[in-house]
Design brief:
- The chain is of the alpha/beta class and 724 residues long.
- 36% of the residues lie in helices and 19% in strands.
- The protein contains 21 helices and 26 strands.
- The strands form six sheets. An eight-stranded mixed sheet has the order 6-5-8-2-9-10-3-11, sandwiched between helices.
- The longest helix is centred in the N-terminal third of the chain and has 25 residues.
Length: 724
């Protein structure tokens, strides 16, 4: 039995470690579990060890100092910090951006930081008062924090849609992870997905540094390739199944159901292939029966590989408990506080780029040939060129790389260097020439529009930049026995073609289409575009964002070949999108602007959307022709021209200038649209920004977008007649 003093010390040693190492990390994990590879069964032992270590240290400190004058002060401080940590992690969980480690502009959070300092100070003072003046209430608060932590965990579990991870799948197979590195001497099929690798970037690298792509003997590059979706969650299942997600059910349910019905790995397994899939995005493989492995678990075996995924969750939880003034010490481009020690030891970049390098190193060590194997199919999905930009052409970590296109080019060159190492290993044991290999991106950069258009890029027609930047994935194909130097073909390809290519057009999805390489440019190809904002990657939404359907009839590099069908797919429904007079076009993340904006608009932000560049276009179809002049009203503010003064903005409707505004602060800006400008119910509204300015040009920002105005709402209504 513990003595009374020991029980008292244990009572006060528990709350803070409980909040920091269990409550905050687990609630954070359960809300974002699709972003992590680790299963809760593997996560809990690490978190419990951290909890016991921290609580044990505080217990010893309190026991040793039980008669010291600072003992009571320490108890009060521990309880106050536990209260503050819970409030910070559960109530002040600010939206700092995606979990991929993209940098934070800390000075933009100065007011939040000041509020937090005042709140923490108030909590510490209040608990300090209770410690010395209201001891019974102080003890009740301590007990209450433990109970509150338990209730928080219970609530997080009940509201989470957590599903078993791939570790559980791995236990169902008797084969070890090394099986994914074994190949047949002559019969091999492979899909290598380089996440976010954009087609035109490969073309640019091939032109500027041809020696860096010369290793791709036998491959054909298809620059006229269209992707299917703007992000990984729906794009990778399309690669594996040839089927489209249209928001008909929740995305996780659809992935599992769709993959279970048909996927190229199980299809080939049924034909006698030895199959294995490796991915950093395990949720995209749900429902597949073939053996599946996490990229991180193959690239870092042993204790380090076991610790890393769990420490990432611990880092995320600790990050949430800290006030903003301390967060930067724990977070820098994904270089998390605890995990960075593993990265430094292994000499790899932080974040998932390090997982890619570890996997390639392990592949070089363990890849081998076995004549006793059946024909082999392998699927490797690497983090690739995915943001943040933080590695150079040698795949070396570069801190604070500017978020510009050239940095993305450098990072993509580094990714190609990893691909070269992987393929070189296949060449070493002489299976490369006979292997049939597809190398593809799942989507484009989402940030940097392609620069290989066949017609005028400065016109107003065509999709907005983020659609163009996400719809153009890399596509390279090498048939079995391919030997020639890297070549290029303008054949109209699509990511849906991969299952048909690797199955010889025999797979079920190919029954209604002929070989894509035999088709002309008049083939209809579809792309479902959307903005993947924080409310979707955080798990707050079960569906994908509302999707706009685009069809391409011709070359994807010809903007005149693109057509917005004005059909959206949203949470189980679809609808056409003509607008009523007086209807609001909402530019917030919860709004509907996605279906009307075209060229010149930047990525979605929570409350608004910025124009990017000198011209921004909106195209809408009215439900009926107006009978009188219209009033255009825009609720917006301007990014200061050169960081100083108002922006001058010209307004055009159907190619006729109707107004010129001087914009700065948030306000409603109005213009009259003469009724005779509106024909066939169509409105093309253009904002001509005279002096768009990049934040990185005027301050310490990594944001180099040329910003003009931040639009919030827009309406078009019949002009009211003012009577005397």
């Amino acid at each position: 039995m513990l003595s009374a003093d020991a029980r008292n010390a244990l009572f006060f040693a528990i709350p803070l470690p409980f909040m920091m190492t269990l409550v905050s990390p687990l609630s954070f994990y359960l809300a974002n579990h699709t972003e992590y590879s680790v299963a809760i069964s593997a996560l809990l032992p690490v978190l419990l060890l951290c909890f016991l270590g921290m609580a044990g240290f505080l217990f010893v400190l309190l026991v040793v100092g039980k008669k010291r004058p600072w003992n009571k002060v320490l108890k009060g401080l521990l309880v106050a910090l536990a209260v503050s940590a819970w409030v910070q992690s559960q109530l002040l969980a600010w939206n700092f951006g995606p979990l991929d480690g993209r940098g934070i502009l800390w000075r933009a959070w100065i007011y939040h930081a000041c509020f937090e300092i005042l709140l923490w100070g108030g909590i510490i003072v209040s608990v300090g008062y209770l410690t010395f003046r209201k001891e019974k209430i102080f003890h009740a608060v301590t007990q209450g924090m433990i109970l509150l932590g338990v209730l928080t965990l219970a609530s997080s579990w009940l509201t989470s849609d957590y599903r078993p991870k791939m570790e559980a799948v791995r236990k169902e197979t008797s084969r070890g992870v090394e099986s994914s590195f074994i190949f047949h001497p002559a019969k091999n099929k492979m899909i290598i997905v380089l996440d976010t690798f954009q087609s035109d970037i490969f073309g640019e690298i091939a032109q500027r540094w041809p020696e860096e792509v010369s290793f791709l003997q036998g491959f054909t590059f298809y620059p006229n390739t269209l992707g299917g979706f703007s992000s990984t969650g729906a794009a990778c299942p399309l690669i594996l199944t040839g089927r489209y997600y249209k928001n008909e059910i929740s995305i996780l349910d659809w992935i599992e159901k769709n993959n279970a019905e048909f996927n190229i790995a199980d299809y080939l397994a049924a034909k006698g292939y030895d199959t294995a899939l490796v991915s950093f995005a395990g949720q995209t493989l749900a429902g597949i029966r073939s053996p599946k492995f996490h990229l991180a678990s193959l690239g870092e075996p042993g204790v380090s590989g076991w610790l890393r995924p769990a420490l990432l969750v611990l880092d995320g939880g600790v990050f949430r408990t800290l006030p903003i003034v301390l967060k930067k010490s724990f977070y820098d481009e994904g270089n998390w506080f605890f995990v960075q020690f593993l990265d430094v030891t292994a000499k790899v970049p932080p974040n998932l780029h390090g997982d890619d390098l570890r996997f390639i190193r392990e592949f070089e060590r363990k890849a081998a040939v076995s004549s006793g194997r059946d024909s082999v199919f392998r699927y490797y999905h690497l983090f690739g060129s995915h943001m943040p930009v933080q590695v150079n052409e040698k795949f070396e970590y570069v801190k604070n790389m500017p978020e510009i296109r050239e940095s993305y080019v450098q990072q993509s060159r580094g990714v190609l260097s990893l691909l070269k190492r992987l393929l070189q290993r296949l060449k070493d044991f002489k299976v490369y020439e006979t292997a049939e290999i597809v190398v593809a991106g799942d989507h484009g950069s989402m940030l940097y529009p392609p620069n290989d258009f066949l017609n005028d890029r400065n016109g107003d027609e065509g999709p907005r930049n983020s659609i163009l930047a996400s719809s153009r994935p890399l596509f390279l194909y090498k048939p079995a026995a391919g030997k020639n130097v890297l070549s290029s073909s303008d054949a109209p390809m699509h990511l849906e073609d991969i299952v048909c290519i690797l199955s010889g057009n025999q797979a079920p999805p190919c029954s209604d289409r002929t070989s894509s390489r035999d088709q002309t440019n008049q083939r209809k190809r579809f792309f479902y575009g959307y903005d993947y904002t924080s409310i979707y990657w955080s798990g707050a939404k079960k569906y994908m964002p509302p999707m706009t359907q685009y069809v391409v009839e011709g070359d994807v590099r010809d903007l005149s070949a693109w057509r917005n069908t004005n059909v959206e797919f949203i949470a189980g429904t679809s609808r056409h999108l003509p607008i009523e007079l007086d209807e609001i076009i909402d530019f917030s993340a919860a709004g509907n602007s996605n279906y009307y904006i075209q060229r010149g608009w930047s990525v979605q932000e929570p409350e608004h959307r910025f124009t990017e560049g000198a011209r921004a276009v909106i195209r809408a179809e009215l439900k009926k022709n107006p009978r009188k002049d219209l009033t255009l009203r825009l609720n917006a503010e301007a990014f200061p021209a050169n960081g100083k003064g108002p922006q001058t903005v010209g307004v055009e409707v159907n190619d006729k200038k109707i107004a010129q505004w001087r914009m700065l602060g948030l306000d409603w800006y109005e213009a009259t649209i003469p009724v005779d400008l509106v024909t066939d119910r169509l409105l093309k509204i253009v904002f001509d920004i005279r002096n768009p300015t990049a934040p990185c040009e005027i301050g310490a920002s990594r944001d180099c977008r040329k910003l003009g105005i931040a639009a919030r709402k827009l309406t078009v209504a019949e002009k009211k007649v003012v009577r005397e």
